[in-house]
Amino acid sequence: MNALLCDFVNxxxxxxxxxSNTLQSYTRDIRQYFDYVSENSLDVLRISxxxxxxxxxxxxxxxxAAASVSRSMASVRAFxxxxxxxxxxxxxxxxxxxxxxxxxxxxxxxxxDEVVSLLAQPDSVVPPTPKSIxxxxxxxxxxxxxxxxxxxxxxxxxxxxxxLGYIKCIGNGTARIIPIGHVAVSALSRxxxxxxxxxxxxxxxxxxxxxxxxxxxxxxFWKLIKEYTHRAGIEKDITPHTLRHSFAAHLIENGAxxxxxxxxxxxxxxxxxxxYTKLVKSRIRDVYNKAHPRA
Length: 295
Known about the structure:
Number of helices: 12
Number of domains: 2
Order of helices and strands: HHHHHHHEEEHHHHH
Shape: elongated
Number of strands: 3
Oligomer: single chain
CATH class of the largest domain: Mainly Alpha
CATH architecture of the largest domain: Orthogonal Bundle
Structural class: mainly alpha
């Protein structure tokens, strides 16, 4: 069996040219599968579909998560496809095998009050500093538009039109125009008018820059989000995407149609946007259960 695994790994590395992480994942999954086959005195070249299903149930019984089981079965399926290509086996016993359904975890969002508190934190810096004015503009903009952090830090000064109140954002290879409200416009106007030229290096085109004058990084934004979340006393596990998720959920909660939200978010598939509808319904149910005396 070890020889088969070595051949399979060489195929993945040299013919398929998979990444090192993918290679490690396949190798680990097949080694675990081989351990099971060996422990149960099975022949890896004469495995039936029923025995593959038994292996899948074995993984579930031993506490493997649905995502882990699905990934492992994908590795086993790829392994048998390889064996078929080399005429070691005639059929793939893992072909079209239904794997455990993975429950999609709904994204964490902030309440409106939590957003207000978070976005107010840069204003609490007295006297205001260039950094706090920049941070205010960034937080207001990302909540006003729902753009990704990667899109936020990729913005150039020329991507913002203060007078018309919109930004041009490029994500997934396509450009989209997103309107921004008066609060974000005001914060951006102050940052651009009073701060950015002094903060940025002479040839820097990025809209948001770090304290050294270069383009802000994702890690830099992540640190300031953590800092302001702590100051606001918010105990939720916030990620760089939390304000993006909150933007979409709050729009839908207040009556925005899915197509418009999809366009602003840059989702290619409407199902990605529909997640926020489920999230809003879930929140309404939680509110009802906590507030209604006969819930």
